[in-house]
């Protein structure tokens, strides 16, 4: 007997929880990261009846010192979108297992009260943070889906909590909670025992239908240009960048997280570090590049990622030089993988000789890899009923089939929990 189409089911109530960031953080970066795009999809979708968006705990001390920031909400015409912003005195999560469990059980109670105030009925909880997914009971929810964008247990700035993340992963498995991961490598590492699905990252067609001009910062820079769009941190293979700088102007377009990693590159006259840039400047740089770069070191963190920048590079029709990372393999023929020992300068010269893509080819890639195309299956999985019917679903082949349309969204604000 055929299973019913989940898209024909009644609209569901959803509680969507952020990890360590706020709605304001999402707005500042123009909703470009995977959780941001999931939020926009949930806010837009007619399959979501009521939506409660929950920010993480924020310190009352910080609020008193800096003032309570205005909650930044994406634009929408829907009146049934709500926000809860929880407060506590401490700035960071505790490290001890017992205190962490207490913290997330308390946050569980905040969510339950807010969901009741928003009149959510047996909502689906979609959370982007493993500590909540693993440590909170959330018995009032119909189901709890963990959306995994990275392996938090390998993220260097949060090393103090690495054991806690591993404990949370174990609890997610014990509770058989369904998992959506951005890469097959990450899904295998999490080893979920409930339902699971891979949903790759994508692009916003509105940004790439017409390629923007190069920003003013490129004026006078000698060609050719190699462009990296992303945070400048310890993921970067500094040696690879330095070698490419002997053959080109290398533009590393993104915030510098640690000056120790940037200092050797600042000393090179052919390397430009403009810092954080507005989104139109980033897309303009990508579109104007001769070659785009993904020069990441091979680490446990990078082996689980699904870099958005890679899809954006290809959406602009640019050839790509990328470290040979498992999630990068098979994305497209215009990605030249650099294995250990490969000469990046020789590879750079090789890809510069590749023929340009046609506009028709570029537009097909954009349509096939849009966020809206990606998230059809995500909504089917998260909202479509019993996750056990969807156990171990394989990711859609890349590129996904094209689906047209990309709407914008907003929210009405509900009260603040204390």
Automatic annotation (TrEMBL):
<feature type="region of interest" description="Disordered">
    <location>
        <begin position="384"/>
        <end position="418"/>
    </location>
</feature>
<protein>
    <recommendedName>
        <fullName>Glycosyl transferase</fullName>
    </recommendedName>
</protein>
<dbReference type="Pfam" id="PF13692">
    <property type="entry name" value="Glyco_trans_1_4"/>
</dbReference>
């Amino acid at each position: 007997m055929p299973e019913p189409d989940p898209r024909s089911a009644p609209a569901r109530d959803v509680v969507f929880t952020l990890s360590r960031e706020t709605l304001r953080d999402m707005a500042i970066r123009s909703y470009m990261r995977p959780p941001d795009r999931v939020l926009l999809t949930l806010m837009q979708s007619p399959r979501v009846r009521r939506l409660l968006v929950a920010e993480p705990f924020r310190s009352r001390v910080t609020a008193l010192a800096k003032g309570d920031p205005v909650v930044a909400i994406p634009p929408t015409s829907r009146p049934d979108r709500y926000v809860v912003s929880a407060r506590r005195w401490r700035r960071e999560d505790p490290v001890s297992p017992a205190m962490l469990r207490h913290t997330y059980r308390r946050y569980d109670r905040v969510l339950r009260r807010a969901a009741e105030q928003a009149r959510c009925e047996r909502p689906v909880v979609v959370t982007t943070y493993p500590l909540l997914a693993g440590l909170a009971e959330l018995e009032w929810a119909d189901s709890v889906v963990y959306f995994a964008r990275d392996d938090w247990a390998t993220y260097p700035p949060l090393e103090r909590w690495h054991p806690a993340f591993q404990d949370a992963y174990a609890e997610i498995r014990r509770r058989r909670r369904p998992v959506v991961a951005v890469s097959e490598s990450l899904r295998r590492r999490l080893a979920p025992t409930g339902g699971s699905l891979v949903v790759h990252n994508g692009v916003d067609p509105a940004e790439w239908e017409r390629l923007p001009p190069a920003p003013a910062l490129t004026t006078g820079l000698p060609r050719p240009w190699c462009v990296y769009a992303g945070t400048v941190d310890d993921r970067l293979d500094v040696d690879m960048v330095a070698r490419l700088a002997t053959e080109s102007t290398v533009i590393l377009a993104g915030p510098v997280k640690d000056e120790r990693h940037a200092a050797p590159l600042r000393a090179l006259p052919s390397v430009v570090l403009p810092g954080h840039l507005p989104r139109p400047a980033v897309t303009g740089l990508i579109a104007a590049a001769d070659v785009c770069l993904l020069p990441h070191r091979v680490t446990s963190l990078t082996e689980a990622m699904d870099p958005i920048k890679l899809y954006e590079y290809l959406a602009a029709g640019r050839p790509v030089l990328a470290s040979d990372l498992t999630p990068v393999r098979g994305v497209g023929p215009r990605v030249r993988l650099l294995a250990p020992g490969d000469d990046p300068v020789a590879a750079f010269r090789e890809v510069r000789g590749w023929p340009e893509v046609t506009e028709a080819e570029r537009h097909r890639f954009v349509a096939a890899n849009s966020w809206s195309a990606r998230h059809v299956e995500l909504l089917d999985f998260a909202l479509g009923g019993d996750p056990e019917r969807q156990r171990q679903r394989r990711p859609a082949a890349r590129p996904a089939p094209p689906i047209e349309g990309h709407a914008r969204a907003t929210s009405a604000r509900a009260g603040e929990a204390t």
